[in-house]
Write a structure and sequence with these properties.
18% of the residues lie in helices and 48% in strands. Strand 12 and strand 13 form a beta hairpin.
Length: 526
Amino acid sequence: MKELTTQISSVTIFRDGARIVRTGKTELTAGEQIVKISDITRYAEPDSFRVKGKGNAVLRGIDVKQISRTYEPEGDVKESYEKLKTLEKDRAEIEDKIQLQTSRGDRLNAVMNQFSSEFGKWYSVGESSMEQLTKMEKASSEMIHDAKKTIRKLKNELERIDAEIASLRDNINRIQGQRRTETVNEVFVNLDVKESTPLELEVTYQLRMASWQPTYDVDIGEETTSVKRIAVIRNQTLEDWEDVGLTVSTASAQPVEAVEPNPFFIDVYRPEYEMVSTRTLAAPSEMMKKEEAYDEETDDLVMQEEPMPDIIEDYAESTETLGGITVYNVAGDISIPADNDQHPVTLTLEEFESRRLHFWNAAAMAEAVAQDEITNGDSVLLPGNVKVYAAGDFIGETHLNLKAPREKFRLGTRVAYDVTVEKKLMEKDTEKAGITRGKQKRGYKYSLDMQNFSKHEITIKVVDVIPHSSSEKINVELAGPSIPTKKEELGVLEWETNIDAGVEFKIEYSYEVEWEKDVSIRPPLP
């Protein structure tokens, strides 16, 4: 049996998986040979292994086996445990000594305090003298000082023992933690070698513990918008990808099936009381050249350096395959370690057509906003997070849903400081004629004022809301606005118009509300 060392040479990453290609070279003699390839991650799917290669040999078959290896720790923890027990015993003895010395000092202080309080009485009757008080204080102070000195020495010894105990415990934990079991796949390739030959083998397999998600950097311009596609890659395969050729595919590794329809039965609704729960799913570089120049004024030799070149960003080549799947071949070699981190890889930079639109909801917004309508190119934009810029300035983040080729979508909603807007109530008539007929009527007249301070003509969509009722007892009638509405539905009025640079523009409209005299309107009218 010949063991072959292989390296990961290329990776194709799907939305929810990856295809790995390992390559290796060896020399084989004539005859039946088995080549063993080890240390393949346990996440590789056994049925996905494929082998091909070059050499004067015939491939008879392959076999994949999953094995477990146990790595024993180095060193013996028994000696460490015995030393730990001895240190813990010494520590307990030191703590007892500290407690003893502390109690001794407390007793001495108590005796000295009692003697001092009683000394006056003994001195007054001649049973004690000042000399005895002095001796007593000196003896007590010396004993208390000795007790404190002993306690300091014991505490220093205790700190030393605690440090040794902590070091021993860390060493024990390290040794015990080194014991581990790893599961890996091994591939056995059965070959019939016709004659001694160099052999190149390529092993391909798929796994699920890798994925990528799209994200976008969108920079909005005047008439074009640049969209940078970025693949955020996660490698959790337990195999580091070092200097590999990377291909990013929009395909999914999950199986797909055609679902047959089931009958759709309907019946009369019978209400039932149910508990309803909701859940949110959520080439080596050239050395910089230096030119010598002579400064005539200073007679000094000046060294002039060429400016450093700008960093160049390479983009992937994209191709479309069967079923609309797009494949991006990333330029150069890429390294992505096996961890739980996100690794962004730039795919492409595209220019899309766009046009600026303004929007104002006069019923709910004090300012107009600007948006950009972008027309997608010939490739699908997958759902992903978007960072939006306007002329290179960051303006916000959002999420992009799936966008089909050439589909239009809007991004970059922001306050339009180049347009001022104001809604004015021009007239309000309360209880107009008609009250004698048992009805009440109220009329309103509004003006929507806009002014374009930009240097270009703008397109603005304006919406406003008037009351709407489905009751026969309440009637709302809209009088002809100054410009026709583009859409009117359930009291929502919509206009779309162009405003030249530096021009003021108004939309005026009025409406009346009439209702039965005994009817209360909720919510109340403005």
